[in-house]
Amino acid sequence: MANGIPFTLTKLDPKSADFLNDLKRDIFLSLKCHDLGTIQEVDFGKQTVTVSINYKKTLIEAQKDGSYAQRPKEYPLLLDVPFVSLTGGQAGITLPIKKGDTCLVFYNDRAIDDWFASGAVTQVSSTRLHSMSDGIALVGVRSLANLIEGYDPERAVLYSGQTKVAVGTKVEISNQSQNLHQVLQDLISKISDLTTQVAAIQVTGVQSGPPSSLSGLPTNASAISGIIPELTAISSRLGEVLE
Fold it and tell me: Closest Cα to residue 138, out of 108, 112, 90, 102?
């Protein structure tokens, strides 16, 4: 401002540095690139969101005494903003976007109406350039006050609340109270115990001696006992995959 008057309201010499700086600032103010925003509504049917901008614009208003005052004003809500989903071919990841999630809104160079409606590659029917009407939301950017708790620096993690699938050199599948690796190990241990007990059952009509005159191990006792090392091997293999 010069003498309390904004440059945009002041007649300047076109050759002056102030004029060029003011012109540059005016161009930057009208050129939308990207904004930080907060999700206000989600439409999973159209896969769009309504977004509020996370800062206010400044209005400069003339006062009765000839001075100028600055007044903050909310940006309008951005409606029907398509959100980014990570996909490739027939595969992808969908996330349960919620109200209150923060996002980065990118503004396309040209109007996206025609493409968004049909996906067709055609001439655009609008002359809009870098407009807030052509935003695309990338959900997930966070402030220091809302960081991801316990961010894993070594593994790729898919999580929802306390339930997660973590992929590193091994795979962890767990929730707040259970771990799949431990559950499977416990199951194998109990099956191994059951096999041991079955193999020790005493029955009549055994491997030798007159039928019904002796009791002892069943004829397939060795086969039953042979399952135990196989279960141990399976347990070892699980340990190579799960943690």
Answer: 102
Give the tokens for residue 192. Answer: 């191994």
Q: In the sheet where 102-107 sits, what is the strand order?
A: 78-82, 48-53, 34-43, 102-107, 135-139
Tokens of 239: 């340990």
Tens digit of pLDDT for each residue in 58-107? 888 888 888 888 889 999 999 999 999 999 999 999 999 999 999 999 99
Task: Compute the distance between CA of residue 39 and CA of residue 243 in angstroms, rounded to an integer.
Answer: 36
Beta carbons within 8 Å of 243's beta carbon, 6+ residues apart = 170, 171, 172, 181
pLDDT digits (tens, 9 = 90+) for 36-53: 999 999 999 999 999 999
Side chain identity, residue 119: G
CATH class of 31-147: mainly beta
Instruction: List the one residue out of 184, 201, 199, 195 whose CA is nearest residue 228.
Output: 195
Domain locations in the chain? 31-147, 148-243
